[in-house]
Amino acid sequence: MKWIEEHRAICNKDEDTCEQCYIIGESLWALSQAQEEMEAKKNQPKPQVKTKLAYNYRLKEWRNEVIK
Asked: What is the DSSP letter of 44?
């Protein structure tokens, strides 16, 4: 991303007139959107796993088994 900083330092145009500035702006916007989506996905509650009690006759104990 060094070229972005170098281009912004020497370019005095805005995103509408400079093609590279437009590409930089679009890339940064896409990155921010992707980060927001990842944060939203990470903050979602996890679904509860459904389990049932099952008796294991070999070990003579009750265990929770996942229902598929």
From this structure: S
Whether residue 32 contacts residue 49, with contact meaning beta carbons closer than 8 Å, is answered with no
pLDDT, tens digit, 9 for 90 and up, residues 18-50: 888 888 889 889 999 999 999 999 988 888 889
Note the pTM of the prediction, 2 decimals. Answer: 0.54
Note the helical H segments in the chain.
2-10, 19-42
Alpha carbon 47 to chain centroid, angstroms: 18
Alpha carbons 50 and 46: distance in angstroms, whole number: 12
Q: What angle do helix axes 2-10 and 19-42 make, rounded to 10 degrees? A: 140
